[in-house]
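Supplementary Note 3. Input sequence used for the single-chain structure prediction.
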Amino acid sequence: MSVNKDIKRVTTHVLQEMKSRGERITMLTAYDFSMARILDEAGVDILLVGDSASNVMAGHETTLPITLDQMIYHGASVVRAVRRALIVVDLPFGSYQGNSRTALDSTIRIMKEAGAHAVKLEGGAEVQESIKRILSAGVPVMGHLGLTPQSIYKFGTYTVRAKEEAEAQKLLEDAELLQELGCFAIVLEKIPAKLAKKVAEKLWIPVIGIGAGGGVDGQVLVTHDMLGITKDFQPRFLRRYLDLFDAIKGAVNQYIEDVRSRDFPSSKEQY
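The predicted structure, written as discrete structure tokens, is reproduced below.
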């Protein structure tokens, strides 16, 4: 899609300026062309092609099964729709952990084949070699700390992270490390609001929260949750702005009724 010269692209530099001005950053997930176009035209700053596609698009219980090829497919679909937002693609499980060369190869594929603007990965000190190698190739990296869904079997639960002092201290140290390494922003997921606020105040890079309170620099939600397309996920931090599940179901029920009663198509809806 050609870029309108009157539309100012959101870049990592723009996000940094927004934090400096105290202007809140908005971020939502996107996995397909049609939804991404709506979100972009609405003015969302960052579109995250999240590995949450594994859950909401493919129906898996966790984010682990989604592959690099599938993330590239979703990423390319979003890129074709967007004219303004910064597009960040998640590196899926197994594409960066433990091997910085694999991490770089995965990232290069995402940047070249999907056309993404940046990548996001989970973890702190344990993935620093992968982050360094990706950054050395000139690719912006967004970090992700707190509840890291790719590590669900390690945690054993989706409960709030970093409530204990030792884990909170490690999270703070990891956040400072990610900034020092060169990450342009960090997502904090499902941690105490006081800790998230402390991290955001300590760092000069933007901190985006999900279930991390209002003291951070921006917020992210899964679009399908926020719009009420999904119904079985109801954490405290989720605000539903629509109930599309019932709205869409109602429209489809009406369509079925109209077809069966021969009301659709009418004489005005045919050639």
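Residues 165-181 form the longest helix (17 residues). The CA atoms of residues 133 and 219 lie 28 Å apart.
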